[in-house]
């Protein structure tokens, strides 16, 4: 803490981070131990966060992240999209295929940014807002692969014809970005993904991750 920071705000943000890291919520006592402060302080922090719907407490008294966080989260997509655009443009022009940034939205993959190449005669039409199950398509499968962290994973995922007949995709997960789970990839009309594309989407995903840190 420095003279310019607020101790109370810092504690409130730490409460939100602790609650975001658990699926079953935390009690006042548990939060008190984790924060190193007495229960009275925790009660005041929770009461304030509850007023803004950022925290809710169940019948058993366990605190959980509130629905107000979702309203804040809706504003994240435009910021993420803006940060990703330079890398996506470079990827689309380099590969000559439609590039996209996809984020997790519940059990689905949601395309939040799409860039089409400017010089190709034809390419796959892929729109921001497009959704598909996480277990179908390169974008979602790359995210699932990152969760499992299988030894020997090349760092990218290739698929063919899973979302659109005749189209294949390549995607690599975003790595090391706190609070953001997603992937960067391309979709193209081809029988097989060219060898260099896998490594190129890994590079683009790394560029996006660095822009978001």
From TrEMBL:
SMART domains: HTH_ICLR. Residues 6-67 form the HTH iclR-type domain. It comes from the Bacteria. Coiled coil: none annotated. Residues 68-213 form the IclR-ED domain. Pfam families: HTH_IclR (PF09339), IclR_C (PF01614). This is Helix-turn-helix domain-containing protein. It comes from Streptomyces lusitanus.
